[in-house]
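re: the backbone from monday

yeah here it is again, tokenized this time
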């Protein structure tokens, strides 16, 4: 197998996985919209620092179990949380 054939197959797999990640991210944003509705109905603030810290801590533990860098995964989850907060605040 040539380099190009080998790398193209792997890149195809990366593209497939990127699509799955985006699908899950879209689902997460949809749930965040629902959460925003519940918070607004109960007059609760959008940002819940305690919950955010719990999500980040859980992500770090799960990352370590999978052999991933917990700091890197926390940065990714921080960005995801920020995206969801922006969506919630825009409603």
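seq for it, each position gets an aa:
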């Amino acid at each position: 197998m040539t380099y190009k054939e080998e790398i193209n197959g792997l890149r195809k797999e990366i593209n497939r996985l990127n699509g799955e990640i985006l699908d899950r991210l879209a689902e997460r944003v949809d749930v965040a919209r629902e959460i925003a509705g519940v918070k607004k109905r109960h007059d609760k603030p959008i940002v819940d620092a305690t919950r955010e810290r719990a999500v980040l801590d859980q992500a770090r533990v799960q990352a370590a179990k999978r052999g991933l860098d917990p700091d890197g995964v926390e940065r990714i989850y921080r960005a995801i949380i920020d995206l969801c907060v922006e969506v919630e605040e825009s409603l």
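Residues 3-41 form the longest helix (39 residues). The helical segments are 3-41, 49-65, 70-90.
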